[in-house]
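User: Assemble these into one structure.

Assistant: Restating your components, then the assembled model:
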Amino acid sequence: MSADRFERIDRLPFEKVFKDPVHDYIHVRHRIILDLIDTKEFQRLRRIKQLGTAQFTFHGAEHSRFSHSLGVYEITRKIVDMFERNYPDEWDPSMRLVTLCAALLHDLGHGPFSHTFEKIIGSDHEKFTTDIILSEETEIHEVLSRVSPDFPNQVASVITKEHKNPQVVQLISSQIDADRMDYLQRDAFFTGATYGAFDLSRILRVIRPYKHGIAFQYQGMHAVEDYIVSRFQMYMQVYFHPASRGMEVTLDRLLYRAKSLYQEENLYPHFTLLDPFFKDKYTIEDYLRLDDSVLQTAINLWTTSDDAYLSELSTMFLNRRPFKSVAYEKGQDESIVEKLRDIVGNLKYDKELFTRINSSSDLPYDYKLKSKTPIHLMYADGTLIELSEASPIVKSLSGNLHGDHRLYVPKEFLEDNQKNKEVSMFQEDYDEFQKYIINDRIKNPNKN
Amino acid sequence: MSADRFERIDRLPFEKVFKDPVHDYIHVRHRIILDLIDTKEFQRLRRIKQLGTAQFTFHGAEHSRFSHSLGVYEITRKIVDMFERNYPDEWDPSMRLVTLCAALLHDLGHGPFSHTFEKIIGSDHEKFTTDIILSEETEIHEVLSRVSPDFPNQVASVITKEHKNPQVVQLISSQIDADRMDYLQRDAFFTGATYGAFDLSRILRVIRPYKHGIAFQYQGMHAVEDYIVSRFQMYMQVYFHPASRGMEVTLDRLLYRAKSLYQEENLYPHFTLLDPFFKDKYTIEDYLRLDDSVLQTAINLWTTSDDAYLSELSTMFLNRRPFKSVAYEKGQDESIVEKLRDIVGNLKYDKELFTRINSSSDLPYDYKLKSKTPIHLMYADGTLIELSEASPIVKSLSGNLHGDHRLYVPKEFLEDNQKNKEVSMFQEDYDEFQKYIINDRIKNPNKN
Amino acid sequence: MSADRFERIDRLPFEKVFKDPVHDYIHVRHRIILDLIDTKEFQRLRRIKQLGTAQFTFHGAEHSRFSHSLGVYEITRKIVDMFERNYPDEWDPSMRLVTLCAALLHDLGHGPFSHTFEKIIGSDHEKFTTDIILSEETEIHEVLSRVSPDFPNQVASVITKEHKNPQVVQLISSQIDADRMDYLQRDAFFTGATYGAFDLSRILRVIRPYKHGIAFQYQGMHAVEDYIVSRFQMYMQVYFHPASRGMEVTLDRLLYRAKSLYQEENLYPHFTLLDPFFKDKYTIEDYLRLDDSVLQTAINLWTTSDDAYLSELSTMFLNRRPFKSVAYEKGQDESIVEKLRDIVGNLKYDKELFTRINSSSDLPYDYKLKSKTPIHLMYADGTLIELSEASPIVKSLSGNLHGDHRLYVPKEFLEDNQKNKEVSMFQEDYDEFQKYIINDRIKNPNKN
Amino acid sequence: MSADRFERIDRLPFEKVFKDPVHDYIHVRHRIILDLIDTKEFQRLRRIKQLGTAQFTFHGAEHSRFSHSLGVYEITRKIVDMFERNYPDEWDPSMRLVTLCAALLHDLGHGPFSHTFEKIIGSDHEKFTTDIILSEETEIHEVLSRVSPDFPNQVASVITKEHKNPQVVQLISSQIDADRMDYLQRDAFFTGATYGAFDLSRILRVIRPYKHGIAFQYQGMHAVEDYIVSRFQMYMQVYFHPASRGMEVTLDRLLYRAKSLYQEENLYPHFTLLDPFFKDKYTIEDYLRLDDSVLQTAINLWTTSDDAYLSELSTMFLNRRPFKSVAYEKGQDESIVEKLRDIVGNLKYDKELFTRINSSSDLPYDYKLKSKTPIHLMYADGTLIELSEASPIVKSLSGNLHGDHRLYVPKEFLEDNQKNKEVSMFQEDYDEFQKYIINDRIKNPNKN
């Protein structure tokens, strides 16, 4: 059956809604969307938090990838509806279903605390997403196949950016796509960070399809500009927050320790659902049984491990007592950083497990990199202009990495009330360490 | 040390804040509050969702008891600040710390999906809360003891309503207390349910202490009235939602099955952290290791149990495929309900495990019950008037239970598209069952 | 041309929007709507404030009837769009234009501070609205006539409730219509009164046409109930606020004085734009030149009138120094009220000009009065149930007038710091007056 | 009496509040503030709209300078409270009253549609503000003098930036002061422009006094940066909107015409309250009788003037039919602009009255101009860093004027549907005019 024909017979007699605090309602008008939401693979996203360790800094940010995925779907639906109404010559209506499905499913392959966990298992969530869509054993695949045998492939090709229609691809992944638009709004809502707000409804009015993809009417320039700034602000103030990264470092070190123990010594209590990943031998089915709960429960169990390191790191994570950090200048203060790591390592701590460098960096916008489609504004006569040419603010952020480099160590070394406490065996080391900390940064005390 | 003196030396040089999407900021001005938040027992509340199974109906409502507890603290702090400023003759400032601590800790004893789980283990969260505060082994107890040896007792007595100062008790638990004010606002925010909103800042202006407790200035009557209506609306529309209760019933049945298996046959895979509870022999320490993750992970493991019932119920819960329900009139249609249960039980289903009656009921406001302190309004000259006397709306809700009675069954029996599906072995039973369902309620088809 | 055909050729190639703080955007898809907005009669509504004297109590509430009219249009448009999509059998699509136009124009005849001014000139805004629509001299009439010669009549008949289609009439005026839904939301937004919020988007989902008008799906009952309560709250807390009514009384007395002077003595400075109304001989054209500015400027000029009473009352209004008030029990304390009026009148004040009784009353909901269409809920099978039968809260408000009776007097008599001031010639009268004021109400001090 | 002592005895027993939709409540704790608000000069601000002609583009933006002034007071109060609590060594508490009064009164001298009207009368609102404060005939002066005979002078000196305490001056006027913080939030709220939102509560946490004025803690850098961007966005999208400027140009031309007629020919209907200004001979008392209503009523009367130009321009303004505009490149296309003006002038239009150039420009931030205090961030050790050094975004906006140059003409020349209308005598001129309009800008069609 053609996607077109399927779309018509698949329509629900009455639209169904999900109440959403960000978009008010998520509107579903096709049975296939409902059925995708009801699959066990999609329901699993309820058990994966959207922001990973940021919930430990912004306590309101406890929302899941499930909510976010519905939001991306809803924004995409609104855009597609508008395209069908206003741009019948530029937009192909037979793209409707594949676009909506890709929007809904684009995060399907995320696992618990993705960024950290993926490093441990050496894979990534985009690969998992397409695997889940294409595997014949998933409910997702079964539902998608109802449209046509090739439909799962089509949906996957949007996510891998190989789909032949550039409009569809750019709606789902580009520098201003439905994914980013939802997560900025949603993360701002749940953290309480007002600077993440931008004028979504204005952007949804000026976005438009054209031959080579997606552009924005020129008069909407400031709304797009403001979106770039909001995104930048969210990275600087929320996503890169030092405390969240302290939890990430703690999690990274404890998973590293657990895996080493498993592989080298087999010392720690086995945990059925994680075993395949420590063995580096897992299937999609194994992966789909993972969620935040599984990881947290394993860590819960490890707090009583016989291995003192694993037990301590697990306790730090479970009870939110992360490493603390201090920033330094890359390419200048590395030697001091090494000196500080040694101070820590010389005490009871294992240097590799208890000190860590963490760098954050984001490219708020770029128009030169091959891998990034530039954002284009369109004049009344169809001429295009690249965003940073029209906006000095965006130009100031373009092509520059933003973020910082931080050294993470046990918190004792960075608490300022050390001296008020009873005399400590670490006092000397603490003082030596603190010599290099000036205005909350690592600095060479002899320079400047 | 006197609480008063401790309070002064315990003040932070600079207040610390937590960003909160509901109250903007949570303001902390005492070290003891920070230290309580940092205990492992309080951090555990991050892993307990506030609304239990309601998250499966309102996908935004994924917030934890941790957020809520901070919110209750913040509302209480605002009230206490105002009392100190405006009512120096009626409010005893030495009550500050005990009130704030009780506000922060009042939910400490909640476990995973409290209402359902507590039924299985035969205890309740209020008991756990005081146990945690009073046990000498907890970090909470240690921090509280810093104020004075008796301070943990004082805090606990607020929660058990035995504290001698009725103002303190009523701030934390009464028909309009800081707990309810926070959860209504918070749950409304996260579900997106606008009807839960009421004028918190107005209520915080008209609340006042008097000799026998807490009252509200008469001119604030309509704000209090609106709070009662908002609370009623949240119960009717959110807390009693049939779909959430369907998940609750599913969870109840699966835990019941798991415990039976454990006790009678020892058939299912052991799960260290739950074992003490199935044995009915647990300590506070055992309890403090529980959280939503532990329960969800156990259910995750049970989806592959050898016991077909446990496996099916676990799968229903994990993948959000709950029982469906239909309302009936109590004291009138019980015999039909039994007939319908038999129809289900006569098929492959176990009647006790796969059909269930669930009743919800709430008393929005009462002024006659001994156990409930009435809400009082105070005139300029100090005279009191009970709320429902002043408000016909509140009178209409007073003393009446609201809620309904529903029969839960496997969803096949209540889906309306049964006939469109391929011919089913259940068709006849389905038709028989449906005969009694009129306008989405159980009705006797022969009566009108 | 048929309305249907006109509607098609009248569509704009691209919808136009107006940014609105309440509804985000007002969406216009027909040229006729744009042209109506651009008429001078509709633009005049920018110069008429929506809430009259309430702006003097709630300083944010400075919005105009122009904003409100756009809002009523937008809500109606959303409903009509939904009816066309979901109820093709119940809703006649040829009603679209007449419904939208009536929604937009329903308040066209409002003048400055309507309620007060209308009493002085002895007419009412509904009459003016239809006159403006039907008069061949207005731009409004000209634009409407483009659809068909009879179209102005059709639009007017919706506003007078004589249109033959009950659905159209009830959308624009009934106990839950687009007019009320907009003003509650809007007034709540601009005053800052949170209790005015209700779940508009939910109501817009459950509203539905049926043979005899408009009903609401049964499952939306609580949303409708909450709307009734919000409306009640806005009346009690905003619309009936004693201070706003104090400004209303002041305005009423000064207009009364000005008109008397004009008619009897011709003493005050003429003011061209008002003269026709003091002569009781005005045309529609005269009326359309009035706005808040004209009235305020007249009052501004009258502050320097030779007539001491007019000058004093005008100064009180212009500088916001209204009469103050005290409530009393009707049918019980009238004799005391008269006594109090005499105390005031015996001093330098004219009793008729400087004391006034003001009664407010609203019927939040009624189902018995012929003039009011009851609100109906509809079950799945089409059966109807009247709202107050389903909701005890609504029942408690039904059929009862709410509001109060207040005596307004010069503020000196009701300020409590009288005694702290220098000895006053009024001290004795003040004391006599105050004897009857107990707990901010008029009471007989010898009773009870 | 010392300001200090006065402050203590002036405190209200109970704080009074004004409900505000932006700040929730405005909190007043001193009688003097209440009394200032109650003066007739301050009440006049209710009749002066905050945004002048922007209300004609953003219909929600009908708020007054009264609301804004209360908002500036409230933000200042919050800052002063925080300074007193947290910076006892850096902030002088005897500055409290003078700071609050200056905040409240800083806009007192604004007249109707200030920017345009001031050009006509050749004065400015800052001069009027200090005149009103210092004049012995105003109620404002009388209330302020209660503190001490010199107090009015002190308040005025804050507004003229001559007060000796730089902290007080910078709180009220600098590149990030209470005035701007309120108007950005407020204008964003009432227009519905989300991009105007910034994190006010965060800024209120990081602002701090130091020896030479006001600085911001370094960790609040991004919040300050975001404020600069929000301000820029509001200028680009709201304050500089071409349609609002079209109304401004219309108003400017009509006032210019009216004054010329008055002075040269005495032709138009006298209007008592405006006469002194057309004579260029007015007192403070004359000025204080002006408000938006007076101007609008004059224009209302002038729509029937015998002078055809005055009547047409007045009608355009009253009925919101402003000039339309097109942008051009300054220093490049002036000759084309002149040519276009001639095309208009050669028709029935007077060139000086019916064509007009309007340039907008704003300096979002500057750190070099003597007249502007740079924004400083402060490190933990007290070192300062200028904002644009720390933020590349701010650097990109620093020292550059933003805005544009537009030619305003009768709308016939810029409407695109000219050709669809009946054959017009202007067709040829219209075509000639349109030749130079490319992509909505004036361009030389022969170049590029």
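The longest strand of chain C covers residues 11-20.
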